[in-house]
Design brief:
Structural class: alpha/beta
Order of helices and strands: EHHEHEHEEH
Low-confidence stretches: none
Helix content: 25-40%
Oligomer: single chain
Strand content: 15-25%
Radius of gyration: 14 Å
Number of strands: 5
Shape: globular
Number of helices: 5
Amino acid sequence: MEKILLVQGANMSFLGRREPEIYGRTTAAELDTVLRAHAKANKYQLDIFYTNIEGEAINRLYRAVDEDVQGLVMNPAGFNHAGYALRDCVRALPFPYVEVHMTNIEKREIRSVLAPVAVGSVFGFGVQSYVFGLEAMLGLLRN
């Protein structure tokens, strides 16, 4: 069974309440329920980790190596702008990384410093971006 880690970056724990006109009204708990159901239906293990602190994200990713995680899906969120230490960590990981964003970050003229180390990125589809990102990761791991 594949083991995927989903990391939710800065401000994502406030999903549904933070700028709902941009990010929608789906809460973090509701999103987690959708994604856990996806994992169950598609027979893979999903661990979801939220943090507002870049160093905590780095520690979690290095721990994932020892836990035999096979893939990383991450919304770096607020770490997009200056997460160079996180980018260096991701670059050193032995498993693939897929970046996801709920909004079209290109349309918002946001550049992710982590995108260059991702296998690919999914953005602009709201909550569905996560499902597409997990599907992409499953495709990488199963093919």
